[in-house]
Amino acid sequence: MDSLRLPQTKDVVLIGGGHAHALVLLKWAMRPLPGARLTLINPGPTAPYSGMLPGFVAGHYDRDDLDIDLVQLARHAGARIVIGAAEGLDLETRTVRVSGRPDVRFDVASIDVGITSEMPDLPGFADHAIPAKPLGPFAEKWAAFLHGDGPARISVIGGGVAGAELVLAMAHALRGQGRLQQATLIDSGAVLGTASAGVRDRLRRAFSEMGVTLIENASVASVHSDHVKLDGGREVLSDFTIGTAGARPHDWLAGSGLDLNEGFVTVSDRLQTSDPAIFATGDCAHLGYDPRPKAGVYAVRQAPILLHNLRASISGDPMRRYRPQKDYLKLISMGGKEALGERFGMLFAGKTVWRWKDRIDQSFMEQFRSLPEMDTPDLPAEHTVDLPEVLGDKPMCGGCGAKAGRRALRAVLADAPGSTRGDITPLPGDDAALLTMGETRQVISTDHLRAFTLDPYVMARIAAIHALGDIWAMGAMPQAATANLILPRLAPALQQRTLTEIMSAARSVMGEAGAEIVGGHTSLGDELTVGFTVTGLCKRDPVTLAGALPGDALVLTKPIGSGVIMAAEMAAKAKGAWVAAALDQMQRSQALPSQVLAPDAHAMTDVTGFGLAGHLLGICEASQVSAEIDFAAIPLMKGAAVLAENGVRSSLFPENAALLPEWQTSGAQELLFDPQTAGGLLAALPVDKAKAAVKTLQEAGHGAAVIGQITKGEGQIVLR
Question: Which helix (H) or strand (E) holds 441?
Fold first, then answer.
C-alpha cells in the first residue's frame, strides 16, 4: 500500500527552524516514517544560516544567500509549517503554545530555537540596540542601515569571537562605502578572553588594520540613539549598536517545566530532555552529561542522532547516543575575504582560508537550494490515448486552481430549469440565490476547497473567507454557516486534533464576520477538503453581476497572484516569504471592503477561480457592457510577476485563458487568468465614489485600487 495513503497516527512537532531541524527535514524527505505527521513551528518562513552572517554583513553575500527556505523545505519533507512564535509548552496536555492560533498538540517534540543576544536588563537596549541573535531581525536592520548615507558610527557590545567577527564585517562594509567614521568593540572583561593566545593576537591585529577601537573591562550603563554610555560616564558615539554578549536562552523555556541549566534545556546523550517525549538540540540545549560551548557545529553533528531518535521514539526502535567531538575546526571571518582557522592548537589565516570557509558554507546551504520538484505520477504502460493530455504535465493545484473550468460549468448550467418557487430568485451569473421569506431577504451560497497547505488551521481560515466572498460580494451581512469537511485518514486522536484546529479557525472567521456555525458534515477521504455553506441577510436588494453602467470605475480590493504562487510552491519555485505573504492575503477579510463598496456599487463580484479577467467578463456579460482595464494599475502579490514571467501557471490557467482567446497576453499579464483563492472584491461604481472608497480602504490597510472602467458595448474587454 502507498505509504501516503496510510493513516497518520502520531504527531511529531519540531519547535524552531534551527540547523539541526533543517537537516532533520531534509533527511526525513528521503525516508518518511509511515504513520507520522510532521510539523515545523517557526516565527518566519525562513531561517538564517549563522555561518554566513559575517559574510553577509561584510557584503560578500546577498540577503537571500543567508536563508534556508523553510516553506520549501517543509513541502519537500511532507511536513506542515506553522508560521508563528512558540511561546510555551504544556507537558501535561502535550501542547505547544503558538502566538495567534490554537495550541499545537504533539506526541513527540523537539526544540531547536537557538539563543538570543537581547539584554533586557540594560537600559535603552530594547529601544536603541539590536541583538545579533536571532539572526533574521538583525540581518534586516543591518541591510537597512547599510543602504543609508552619511558618516556611520557603530559599536558592538560583547567582545567574544561573535562580536569580533561582526565588528570587523561591519567596518569592512562601511569602509567600502567611504562612510566609516568610528567602530568600537566593548567588553566587560578582556576582548576575546576565552580564545587562544594565537587567535587573540591575530584578531587584535585585524582590529588595528580595520580601525576598530577596543574598550575592555568596561561595563555599559545605558544605550541611547546616538551613543553608548559606560559606567563612569564615558560616552561612545554610535548610530548602530548591536549586542553579542552573554548568549541567553529564550524566556519561555523557563516556564516549560523541563529541567534547565542556567535557562538552557538539559538533555541526555540521547538528546532527550527530562520529559522523554521531548528532545532538544543546538544552542538552546545543554549537554548535561558532557557540557560543550555554544557552536553551530554541534547542532549539525546532532542532526542524524536526533532524526534517528525521533523516529525510534514512535516506532519502538532502540535509540542512539550522541558523543560530541572534543575539538572542532574554528573558522573566523575577518571582515574582508580573509579568515582565521584553528584546530588542535594549529593556526592558519589568509584568503585561502576564507575560500575554504566559503566552500564549506556554500556546500551546507546547497543542500537546501536544490530541492527536487514534485513529480507527476507515472502512467501505467497501457492507458487511454488522451490520458496524458488530460493529466497534464504538472500536479493538480489546490484551492481554486483545482476547480472545474467556466466553460464546462456554463455548458451544464445552460440547460438547468428555472426556479419554480416564488420565494427563490436566481441571481444572474452569481453563485448564489436570493430567498424571500416575508420581509426577510436571505442569500445563500456554498464553496469548498481542496487543501493546498498542510496546516488545517490556515486552510480552514482561507476556506471560510473564500466561502464568505459571495455573501460580501452581494452586500449582504453573513448570518449562518455549515461546515463540509473531508479529512484524510487519521487515527482518532489526530482526527480530533485536526477538527479542533479547523473548527477553531472557522468559528473565529465566521464570528468576526457576524455569522454562526450551526452544523456540518465530516467524512474521510484521500486528502483534506474544507468547505462551507453560508447564508447572509440583505437590508437592501443584493448587489449582483448585472447593473454595471458605462463610465463606472472598476475597483479591486486585493492583489492577484495566489494561484501562480501556490503552483510554484508545489514545484519548489516560490520563495517562502512569497508563500507566507500570499497565505496572509488569502486570510484577509473582505467585510470592510463590502461595507464600503456595496452602498454605491452597481455590480460586484468576488475574484476567485475564473481569475480577474473571467470574473470581469461575468460582470460585462450580465450587465451587457464592455470594459477597459489598465494592467499597470492592478495590484500583484509579491513574487507573482516574477513567477509568471518565468512561465509558472496554475493547472486551471488554460481553461481561464480560453475565455478571452482574442487576448495576446504573455508574462506577467497572464496573471489576469490566474485563479484566485479567497480573492478580493471587484466592483463597478461611479468614479467619485470609487476614488473615495479606495482612499478609505487603503487607509485601513487594504491593497485596493482603481484598475479600469466600464464602457459601452457587450462583453468586450480591452487590456491597456
Answer: strand 440-450
Residue with grid cell 516514517, as numbered in its chain: 33
Same domain? 255 vs 239: no
| E strand or H helix that includes residue 186 | strand 180-186
Note if 400 is an active site residue: yes
Given this model, what pLDDT does residue 1 score? Answer: 38
Whole-model pTM: value is 0.90
pLDDT in tens, 253-296: 999 999 999 999 999 999 999 999 999 999 999 999 888 877 76
Specify the number of domains making up the chain: 4
- Tell me how far apart the terminal alpha carbons of the chain are, to the nearest angstrom: 53
Q: Give the CATH number of the domain where residue 453 resides.
A: 3.30.1330.10
Q: Which residues contact 154 (CB under 8 A, 6 or more apart)?
A: 167, 170, 171, 174, 180, 182, 183, 184, 238, 239, 240, 241, 242
Strand residues in 505-549 grouped as ranges (E): 516-525, 529-537
Domain that holds residue 514: 431-543
Q: What is the mean pLDDT of residues 430-446?
A: 86
Strand 152-157 and strand 180-186: the pairing is parallel
Q: How far apart are CA 501 and CA 505, in angstroms?
A: 6
Task: Note the pLDDT tens digit of each residue in 297-318.
Answer: 778 899 999 999 999 999 999 9
Annotated catalytic residue within 284, 397, 400, 538: 400
Residues 690 and 558 in one domain: yes
> Could you tell me the CATH number of the domain that includes residue 48?
3.50.50.60
